[in-house]
Amino acid sequence: MNDKSLRDLRRPSRPASGKPPRITFPCRYPLKVVGDAAEDFAAVVCQIVSRHDPEFDASRMQVVDSRNGRFQSVRISIHATGEAQLQALFVELKATGRVHMVV
Beta-carbon neighbour count of residue 7 at 10 Å? Predict the structure, then answer.
């Protein structure tokens, strides 16, 4: 297999329109929430996520500190029911003033 074939395998397929495929709801939806490191950062994220996903399992949450310890990323997976739910979750996370990025 040549290098071009390997790149093609890693590239997500796109429909003929060239637009990325839409998400089919409901689904498991992974998120990474990045903010300033603090003892309660993961708890704040967990509390907000639980309001938007009653099935959220905090025991599967992963907290990773940045190399210099200034930031933390909280990695979770939620049961996504629709775009409105995701948008409301993103808005509430950003409204804390502690979240720098949601990916």
Answer: 9
